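Hi P.,

Sorry for the delay on this. The queue was packed all week, but I finally got your sequence through. Input first:
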Amino acid sequence: MKNINNPAELERIAGKIRLKALEMTVAKKKGHLGGTFSCVDILVALYYGGGLGIDPSRPQWPDRDRFILSKGHACLGLYPILVDLGFMSQERFDTYGDNGGLGGQLDTGIPGVEWNTGSLGHALGVCAGMALAAKMDRKNYRAYTLLGDAECAEGSIWEAITFAGEKKLNNLVALVDRNRLSVTEVLDDDSFFRSFPDAVRSLGWDCYDVDGHSIPALLETFQKAKTSEKPVLIICQTIKGKGVSFMENTIKWHHSVPTAAELEKARAELVKERP
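Then the structure:
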């Protein structure tokens, strides 16, 4: 498994993934670029920076860490990683958007994918179950999930938070892509997020707030999570559409396809951004 400690190299990888997601969205006329771009740095830090204990040659290795990308509509941020690490082939990635090919959500038929996505609000509960199973089986693997900030208002999320705190699941890590935009609404800090960290801590969790586009900050926080005595929630402050100026902080780019002119502008900005 790759373990890259050079932030500049990880940032370069993140830039390549954004570019691949952009070009695939345009080629197949479908994709969720805004929410994909906001979480790419988190995924890169997790998969390449030593955060996850996984082995592409053994996708079902019993002692692997588990990861669920709850916001599965950001799959174009994960598919290129799975290709690069050897979980699946480039040929399969090229079927994205085709009949019978890869879809706009993740499924367990894809090596390296632990859960079928599409319906939000369930991944944290599933990961809590995985973390509890590890403890019951006396295993050392950890369970991670990346949530969208909008889904954190769902009751099932809070049931899972309460459960994990009561069970002291210190092998559970939940990351929140806090990009402040749902499909249709702005989720400002005067919403329930004002008291979110305190509420989570009161239910038996450690909670960190981190710049979700800072690779060094993410890597440092992941290491802290591994030594916690409690389940850990990491609020990653991000920008929807990160990396492309006209997409950033804009609801339109939750699910829109760039025109030819927009593609060229976006491509130029992403290539320029790469170190």
